Predict the structure of Mannose-6-phosphate isomerase-like protein (Cupin superfamily).
Amino acid sequence: MEHYTIATIAEKSPDFRRVLWTGKHTQLVIMTIPPGGEIGEEVHEVDQILTFVSGTGEAKVSGQTRKVNQGDLVVVPAGHKHNFTNEGPNPLVLYTVYGPPEHAEGAVHKTKEEADALEEAGKDEPPQS
């Protein structure tokens, strides 16, 4: 059994992205977006569910924009363009579930720049089932 006090773990992580668990069909990832930062506009071939633990931000999914705060959950279906930005003075902390996995098992990306570089280099690939 895997057990997480997810909000506590997410808030303690200084990393932009940290993969906590990878299964055959889903993956659990925590993220911390610094003030003024963003995930970056992207489109995944997988579904994604994001739950916000702390901070304030903006969600942009398929051209629709909404504010996000602690306790909010946003669903991004596969194939939809999206971005999440930190609009507040504190880190925007969240956890996300991908289905199927989107990142390399156990991946830790300290910054967005590191995450982008590893993705571009093909070094952040999900496990093959």
In short: Helices lie at 6-12, 112-120.
